[in-house]
Amino acid sequence: MTGPLIAAALACMLAGAVVDLCAGTTNAVVRTVPYLLGAAGSGCMLAVGVHATLSHPTTVGITSLFGVGRSALRVDALAGAFLTLLFGISVAVSLCFASWARSDVGRPHRRAVATGYLALLASVAVIVCAADAFTFLFAWEALTVSFYLLTSAQRGGPAKAGAAWATAGMGKVSGASLLVGFLLLAGRTHSFTIASWSAVGPGALHDVAWVLVVAGFCVKLGVVPFQVWIPVGYPAAPGPARAAMAGVAANVGVYGLWRFLGVLGRPPVWLVVALLLAGGCTAFVGILFAGVQSRLSRVVAYSSVEHAGIIVVAYGVALTGVAAGSPTLEVAGLVAASLQVVAHAVAKSTVFCSLGFVEAGAGTDDLDALRGVGRRLRWSGASFGAGALALAGLPPTIGFVSEWFVLEALVQQFRLGGLALRLGLAGAGALVALTTGLAALAFLRVLGLTFLGRPSGTVPATSDAGPLGRAGLVALALGCLGLAAASPWEVRFLARGLSPLVPRRAALQALKSPWVLQPVYHGFSILSPSWLWIVLPVACMGVLGMASLASRGRYLRVRKVPAWRSAGAGVAGPSSYTAFGFANPLRHVLANVLGTERTRHVRPPGTAGGGRWGDATGATGATGAADATGAPLAAYGAPQGAPGAAAHIESQTRVVEPVEAYLYRPAWKALGWVADGARRLQSGSVNAYVAYMLVALVIALAVAAALR
């Protein structure tokens, strides 16, 4: 059953790519065919995943496809759990993509977009099922190519080209790290089969392999300092392709970390501590920069960095249990990390698919220009709200359940004896706790001021998702909400999936009773997400009813009061509260981390302002006029140019990402200097080359004489 289903899935994806490349994108109906074939192939892989998780492992031989050894695909319970998650999401994303591609309004239609998407799905399927190094690395490089195709689809200028090259460059760094690590393990065991590498014992080679493997997978996830490609790569992709990249493809990095925990075993303690702190810093940096962005696509992209950090922190808890010889802590970390993976994959796919329709319907992803878009695009707005609440970790979503497990696992450091591991867990816990608070701030800003705000009227919303897109959005939104209520069943399914790493009975200790969860440790704390779905609505209705009775109905009456000049509710125009103004306190309070630079310019009365007010992240800033609330400063009182008119004050705000500004840009300049030097050598004269050879010969003879 497994082999034919995998073959059918790959055949559907290949057929979709052929249709895309041969039939083109001129016909609206033909444009949807590749994505519908992608949905069919994803359904086949979903069936493979469910069957593998609930039954015995299966190996599918693919002969000597790469000319070295015997290549094979192996689907065990761990691979089955990831296939179930990733391709369950892919079915919904494919439906959204088909609806997005059918419309001619606001959609960039180019050849190879569907091909890149289908290549991404096929690469993910092969990576998760690969049993040998060559199959794994071949699919990994194919995934990098698919990322390049998707991020270069909208070739509108140097920024788009730079995003595609940055994405491809980081993909090559990831592949190179994995290649070296795999070669070391294969050289020691004389085998290219991944499962055979578990025979490598402790030692320097084992530790180096651990570092290379972790680095390779963390690049794909976007862990600091490898996160710089995500804020530019994800926004460069068209429509729902971002959901496929962030919610599906990025999780192959997570799968690799899980798989090699079972292969390599106990990691070095210093690597565990470094991974905990790197994950905590990644989560904090990701949500901090998400909270000050002015483009919605960059907000969601930086949120991916945040959740990658939380996943890595929970994985670090599992590694702490392995390093400290505490199987219970290992199980607690793996269960928490797996729940966080599910929450992030579903929620991020929901948000990015919704954003694809919002951006296509409104023509922009600017936060302030999109004010009130949720009231005009109701399907996309409602699904975005469900995904945003899950990403913020608020009840009763699956994000709340997963982050509760992560925090509960982090506070178990008192059970350990080693000081280094305890300090690592404490530091990571503090950073994750701070991150969860900032996440609520970041996404409530987006929901309250952008999607649910008063419509600005500046950006017309032309069209929402079609029937297929609505079906996909509803399925994803229900996943964000329904998985929380069904989380006890989810834990049971994950216990089967994690059985190749930890005993199934140990993972089921996360269930205190059939509907009550606990952080694996008995008597520490409990949570019933299913009960929250009953208690929270009843409590809200009770409070509303009591307030209405106590006020004798006045609580629900509409009251009109004079408008407050500081931009409260009911104030429109330049005095209204903006998404930029909401994030302004964060820019100032954490200016040392954000590198906030603010300058003011006073323009004489009657002169025009200096461009759009807002914020930017990166080496280039944005300029504009803003008061303390973030509203643009116009001349209050007399009109500009009239006698007594007020001066126009322009404020320039620049936010710099430290890793990019202080690590990658100096390295790029140094590389350019080396390239310039090499260019001079290449363009020299024949006499200079002869002189170089003579000097090299004299040095070689001198060294040889000294050695003798």
Describe the structure.
- With 708 residues, the protein is mainly alpha-helical.
- It has 4 domains: 1-217 and 224-265, no CATH class; 266-555, no CATH class; 574-656, no CATH class; 670-707, no CATH class.
- 65% of the residues lie in helices and 4% in strands.
- It is built from 25 helices and 7 strands.
- The strands form 3 sheets. Strands 5-7-6 form a 3-stranded antiparallel beta sheet, with no helix packed on it. A two-stranded antiparallel ribbon has the order 1-2. Strands 3-4 form a two-stranded antiparallel sheet.
- A hairpin with a 2-residue loop joins strand 3 (511-513) and strand 4.
- Helix 1 runs antiparallel to helix 2 (28-54) and helix 10 (251-264) packs parallel to helix 12.
- The radius of gyration is 27 Å and the shape is globular.
- The protein starts with a helix and ends with a helix.
- The model is unreliable at 609-643 (pLDDT under 50).
Key words describing this protein structure:
708 residues; mainly alpha; 3-stranded antiparallel β-sheet; two-stranded antiparallel sheet; 7 strands; 4% strand
